[in-house]
Amino acid sequence: MVNFNVTLSNKTVLVTGAVGFIGANLSKRLLETVNGIKVIGLDSVNDYYDVSLKEARIKQLDNFDNFTFIKGNIADKTLVESVFEKYKPQVVVNLAAQAGVRYSITNPDAYIESNLVGFFNILEACRNHPVEHLVYASSSSVYGSNKKIPYSTEDKVDNPVSLYAATKKSNELMAHAYSKLYDIPSTGLRFFTVYGPAGRPDMAYFGFTNKLLAGDTIQIFNYGNCKRDFTYIDDIVTGVVNVMQKAPDANAYGVKYKVYNIGNNQPENLLDFVDILQQELVRAGVLPEDYDFEAHKQLVPMQPGDVEMTYADVDELVRDFNFKPSTSLRDGLRAFAQWYKEFYIK
Q1: Residues ≥6 apart with Cβ < 8 Å to 331
Q2: Mean pLDDT across the stretch 125-150?
């Protein structure tokens, strides 16, 4: 029996990054399934990737009477404070962040602003306007160059290989300090390679599809000898909704703080991943049956900031929520390919 201690019905929930990939899907799920809930969505709608995707998500969420959208940046402390003051959210899910490992190498300022300053502003607002539970996005990137697999939340995470990873580890440390000092129940979620329909175009499966459709060559890093724990968006959202309803009890140090992995617990080789993707793109009619994939693939060395494998140990997630992600890569990529055809090709 899962020990839920936070009721979402008839509550006001603030979701930052609400028109991002995870944020939009989470907001939609909450609005569709929770009685009397009010979702306040805060998002800067920046142009890090195709804004038309974000606009489509806003349009979908605007169909719900109990959804309120605010365009703004969590790095704006005055704005964040005013949102908390006006709407008084009881549960906060912070998904607003500058994402992407590679982008952090060339645009570090964006990560400091959003992931550090922005998250600090959220913590300060939770301090000044106490909430029942703060849930925030961390990342599997925090495991960095760890050699032990699968990755466990008990492992040390002191070897980040990108600034993005360092900011996400910093979020966990900041949340722990605020939980200790101001009694803010907080839970961090280390997401593992989230994918699915209407996802982020900077992710491999989406970028590969764009390039193949354009007749360009896709680069497969580390000569294809990488494995990723691909996690389907619906599984991620189920995990987040579960966690929202269980604020952590005080641990051995008296801190109401917890971190979970949310991953598929089944790493896939990149070459197998590309093979399944191409099959599903053909099946959906995105690419023709006679497409010459071999002529559009290039095996290249590992790139800076990347790791060879991600692999989630989800034992704690199973223990506390009787849940683990389970969508197969083929089913997930099939859903993506079908969505891509409808959204871009029609």
Answers
A1: 232
A2: 94
Which of the residues are catalytic?
164
| Nearest-10 crossing angle of helices 21-33, 51-61 | 10
Please give the pLDDT value at position 305.
Answer: 60
Domains of the chain: 12-195+231-265+310-327 (3.40.50.720)
Burial of 136 (C-beta count, 10 Å sphere; 0-12/13-18/19+): buried
Distance of CA 113 to the CA centre of its chain: 18
Burial of residue 65 (number of CB atoms within 10 Å: 0-12, 13-18, 19+): exposed
Dihedral of CA atoms 58, 263, 212, 104 in degrees, nearest 10, equals 70
Strand pairing report for 186-191 and 133-139: parallel
Dist CA 311 CA 1 (whole Å): 27
Position 224 pLDDT exceeds 80:
no
Local confidence band at 145 (pLDDT 50, 70, 90 cut-offs):
confident
Residue 176: pLDDT above 70?
A: yes
Do β-strands 227-228 and 268-269 pair in parallel, antiparallel, or remain unpaired?
antiparallel
pTM equals 0.95
Residue 309 DSSP one-character state = B
d(CA 134, CA 171): 12
Amino acid letter, 247 = A
Q: Can you give the pLDDT at residue 1?
A: 63
pLDDT tens-digit readout, 194-214? 999 999 998 999 999 999 999
Q: Pick the closest to residue 260 from 138, 99, 91 (CA basis).
A: 138
Q: Is 134 exposed, middle or buried (0-12, 13-18, 19+ CB in 10 A)?
A: buried
Q: Residue 290, class by beta-carbon neighbours within 10 Å (0-12 exposed, 13-18 middle, 19+ buried)? A: exposed
Which residues have a Cβ under 8 Å from the Cβ of 290 and sit 6 or more positions away?
A: none
